[in-house]
Amino acid sequence: MSPSEAPALFTAKVEPGDQQFDAWANQPLLLSAEQGGINWPSSCRNGACRTCISQLDQGEVRYQIEWPSLSAEEKAEGYVLPCVAFPCSDLTLRLA
Ligand code: FES
Question: What's the number of domains the chain is made of?
Fold first, then answer.
């Protein structure tokens, strides 16, 4: 694999608690958080139950599924579902 094919790696901070983990662009934030030793609440892991819901204080995410269980208002307010959200930048997540 050439360096240009390597997945991007971002830094994700978690508030409250001032923790951080490596957030790979090619996998959901929840998985990266768990690999980084963060104990994040989760259940369905497919964007349906909202157990993992959190607020994006900084940064951007994208989704591979069309309608994660968030309303347009919640998305506008910065709520994200880390089990199905992929990072597009360094970011800060706040446990909701
Ligand atoms: S774990 Fe169910 S929506 Fe994320």
Answer: 1
pTM exceeding 0.85? yes
61 vs 1, 2, 17, 76, 89, CA distance in Å? 25, 25, 21, 13, 7
Q: Which two tokens stand for residue 91?
A: 């970011």
* Residue whose token pair is 């963060």: 38
Distance 4 CA to ligand 1 centre (A): 32
> Is 62 inside any structural domain?
yes
Rounded CA-CA distance 86/65 in Å is 11
- 83 Cβ below 6 A of ligand 1: yes
- 1 has a pLDDT exceeding 60: no
